[in-house]
Design goal:
This protein is mainly α. The chain is built from 7 helices and 2 strands. Strands 1-2 form a two-stranded antiparallel sheet. Strand 1 and strand 2 form a beta hairpin. About 5% of the residues are buried.
Length: about 260
């Protein structure tokens, strides 16, 4: 057995002590010796399981017939009531075996050895459940005639409430239709306004584009005028230079004459 199985066995021992032994009506505070405990707990399935789990932790037990050591799993036992409670919770035998810390084969051996007692316990359990169900059914049958007028009155009240709710629902449907029409009209109006606004924005965009084009053309014209002005200035400078040279030549001719 590995550490996890031993741990599970110790946890199970603590659970049994807390849930069964501490609350047992046969428990006597003065019973401290092992013999006293055995005399009091002899025949108790919980005590048998505790004994088995103690041997599980010790790993081995003795086979009295052969005098050999054998696994303690052969001494496994659990209360039938606990077994059927776990089965009612939807657990399979392999799940119960894992919870109890034993192998599936050992659990199957326990079921086989106790098959008659388990079958008898199940019959008694089913019989008890059936009796309880019959008691509840009879109690309901006795209360049914007395509760019938009250149930009929409740049904009548619920019918009236349903009729009023149906009227309220129809009114809400009419109001919802009116609100939907108003909403559609408002949406259409907003769409028309948006379209007109978009048209205005388009015209404004065209105007701005024309202004930008005029500004660009004006800039080009200014550049051309500036270029022409520079050309004129250059011509004036050349003319002035030619006039100075002509004057100098006239002065030179006068001197020679």
């Amino acid at each position: 057995m590995d550490k996890q199985q031993k741990k599970a066995a110790r946890i199970r021992i603590g659970t049994l002590l807390d849930e069964h032994c501490d609350k047992c009506p046969k428990k006597i505070a003065s019973q401290t010796t092992t013999k006293q405990r055995e005399n009091t707990c002899n025949g108790c399935p919980v005590y048998s399981e505790l004994t088995y789990l103690g041997k599980v932790i010790d790993q081995k037990t003795t086979n009295k017939k052969e005098g050999k050591l054998m696994p303690v799993e052969s001494a496994f036992h659990m209360p039938f009531e606990e077994y059927f409670k776990l089965k009612d919770q939807g657990l399979l035998d392999k799940d119960i075996a894992a919870r109890k810390g034993v192998t599936k084969s050992n659990f199957a051996n326990w079921k086989f050895k106790n098959r008659l007692r388990i079958s008898e316990f199940k019959k008694n359990l089913d019989k008890k459940k059936k009796e309880e169900k019959n008691k509840l059914s009879k109690a309901f049958d006795l209360e049914k005639p007395q509760a019938l007028p009250s149930i009929c009155q409740d049904v009548s009240d619920w019918k009236q409430k349903y009729a009023q709710l149906e009227i309220d629902y129809k009114d809400l449907v009419v109001k919802a239709g009116e609100m939907e029409r108003d909403f559609k009209n408002e949406i259409d109006s907003l769409k028309r306004k948006l379209k007109a606004s978009e048209s205005s924005h388009t015209e404004a965009d065209h105007t701005l584009a024309e202004i930008d084009a005029l500004r660009a053309h004006n800039t080009v014209l200014e550049l051309e005028i500036s270029s022409q002005q520079d050309f004129i200035n250059n011509l004036q400078n050349e003319l002035s230079s030619i006039q100075l040279e002509a004057k100098a030549m006239r002065d030179l001719l006068r001197i020679k004459l």
